[in-house]
Design goal:
This protein is of the alpha+beta class. The protein folds into two domains: 170 residues, Gcn5-related N-acetyltransferase (GNAT) (Aminopeptidase, 3-Layer(aba) Sandwich); 160 residues, Gcn5-related N-acetyltransferase (GNAT) (Aminopeptidase, 3-Layer(aba) Sandwich). The chain contains eleven helices and 14 strands.
Length: 384
């Protein structure tokens, strides 16, 4: 017998955070996410998704009163799909299909009451840059903000009836490896144009770069759907949040006549420092973080976003920007490895970029979908 508790009081909130830590205690690849990052998702004062949706969290306990699973479930009007689609996320469960089925059934019933016809998981109540997808290949230490789970989660989802809506592919390469021939050709072409320039993001002019990000991001992602647009206030807040850990050598923009046309945003892999904090980030933990940031060399940086204005796509701008940035950070930094945050398999342009970067796929996550009408034809995410 399994009992259900909705997460409402402080003790339940703590259990929602502590259950995965116990579940993964013997897994050396697991890095506990920061508690504040998870709690922030469910804070109505900080998560703007509550303006367009609703969310609830649940704990599932066995007859002895021990937690055997947890999940969050949510609806978001800005999550635009072919049919009304809700989400489940922050799913963790013991290796037992009956328990997982019980959790998934509960999520389905909650979403049906909210007018949904399908559910995606594991996803986040907000942007796709954090806590999105079920890890199905590459069970190494996760990047900051990336979901990590046991290999058996794949079977839990698929045995219930979830199907892969799209795969999320991560690619890596050595940071100091030479840039590819095709990018060097692109760079040689555009570097002759005196109207072209490339600049690293500097903390002193962060607001200006946030505005440039806004211009490129919304024009480049407006065709993707699924609530991908961001407003300027959100972007400025994101840049200010990144400021303490930003490395001024590895985030770059390209310009034509000083107008932003492309961006390559990278940051150090924060999990190389956060893994020492056990999910905590109070005052003492911040002091510890600064200590580890100073004494523990970070050997990996992470590609968060690459974007080119639609009118400049397929014109070699990406090669120009990448070579300019790479020529600089190979001299100015000691990073050994570069890993790209996930690229959806529905995005051939970005997959082509990864290929030209001469990367190798190092991990794969999946966004699963479950249609409540089991007779309805399942469709994969459309190509963009």
């Amino acid at each position: 017998m399994i009992t259900i508790e909705e997460v409402e009081n402080n003790a339940q909130k703590r259990e929602f955070l502590e259950f995965p830590a116990r579940l993964y205690k013997d897994d050396t690849a697991y890095i506990r996410p920061l508690d504040k990052d998870i709690e922030g998702v469910f804070d109505r004062n900080t998560n703007k998704s509550f303006e367009n949706g609703a969310s609830a969290r649940f704990l599932f306990k066995n007859k002895e009163g021990k937690t055997v699973g947890k999940v969050a479930v949510f609806v978001n009007k800005k999550y635009l799909e072919k049919q009304p689609t809700g989400g489940i996320g922050f799913f963790d469960c013991i290796n037992d299909q009956k328990t997982a089925n019980f959790i998934f059934d509960h999520c389905k019933n909650w979403l049906l009451k909210h007018g949904m016809e399908a559910m995606d998981g594991s996803i986040n109540f907000g942007e796709r840059d954090k806590f999105w997808g079920v890890l199905i290949e590459g069970f190494s230490q996760p990047l900051y903000g990336m979901n990590y789970n046991f290999p058996y989660y794949k079977e839990l989802f698929e045995n219930y009836g979830f199907q892969i809506y799209y795969n999320q592919l991560c690619f890596s390469r050595k940071a100091h490896a030479p840039t590819s021939r095709i990018f060097n050709i692109m760079h040689a072409k555009h570097s002759k144009n005196e109207n072209f320039s490339a600049k690293p993001v500097t903390k002193a002019h962060l607001e200006k770069f946030a505005e440039d990000f806004y211009t490129i991001y919304n024009k480049s992602w407006e065709s993707h759907g699924g609530g991908k647009q961001m407003n300027l206030a959100e972007i400025k807040k994101m840049f200010n949040t990144m400021k303490p850990v930003m490395n001024e050598h590895i985030a770059w923009f390209a310009y034509e006549n000083e107008n932003p046309i492309a961006m390559w945003i990278n940051i150090p892999d924060l999990n190389q420092w956060f893994k020492y904090l056990n999910g905590k980030f109070g005052l003492w933990d911040k002091i510890k973080f600064l200590y580890y940031k100073k004494v523990k060399k970070n050997t990996k940086f992470v590609g968060l976003i690459f974007g080119v204005l639609p009118e400049w796509q397929n014109k070699g701008v990406e090669g120009y920007l990448i070579v300019e940035a790479a020529n600089h950070f190979r001299k100015a930094t000691e990073f050994l490895d570069f890993e790209m945050q996930w690229i959806g398999d529905f995005n051939p342009k970005m997959l082509g970029l990864a290929k030209h970067l001469e990367t190798e796929m190092t991990r794969k996550l999946a966004t699963y979908r479950y249609l409540f009408d089991r007779e309805k034809e399942f469709e994969r995410h459309p190509t963009v």
